[in-house]
Amino acid sequence: MREKILTFIEKNSRIDVKELAIVLGVDEAAVMNELEEMENEHIICGYHTLINWEKTGIEKVTAMIEVRVTPQRGMGFDKVAERIYNYPEVESVYLISGGFDFLVTLEGKTLREVSQFVSDKLSTLDSVLSTKTNFILKKYKDHGTIMAEPTKDERMKIAP
């Protein structure tokens, strides 16, 4: 039942518990108990709303920063990651394979604000060797949801 609940709420966290119980063919109380258990176990870590900020007129800049670090002796990557994710500006931190160790995402109001965070806070951490900042220019799909407007077929129809 857990996998089915997680699959449904991952796509629609606003689904009504009663509706979810009907879809799963189980008791509403069972769904509530399972959700609460998964929240307590940190399987479910939060419920989020996906917003297309481009349509709001509110200026926001999102950056994906690749970070190369020297892991601290006896603590590995976890302690470095903790220092990074504790900054309130940071949206997410991932340990990744490849040429860099972490992928850090953050949002700011301007390119300058994001750049200043990288140069003043992130780059100055003892274990950080280098960073590479990539600014997101446009989102086409995010968290499985298509953000872009569908393209219209502007070809002329030719009747036979």
From TrEMBL:
Molecular function GO terms recorded: sequence-specific DNA binding
InterPro entries in alphabetical order: Dimeric_a/b-barrel (IPR011008), Tscrpt_reg_AsnC-like (IPR019888), Tscrpt_reg_AsnC/Lrp_C (IPR019887), WH-like_DNA-bd_sf (IPR036388), WH_DNA-bd_sf (IPR036390)
One GO term (biological process): response to amino acid
GO cellular component, one term: cytosol
SMART domains: HTH_ASNC (SM00344)
Coiled-coil spans in chain: none
Protein name, per record: Lrp/AsnC family transcriptional regulator
Provenance organism: Roseburia zhanii
Lineage: Bacteria, Bacillati, Bacillota, Clostridia, Lachnospirales
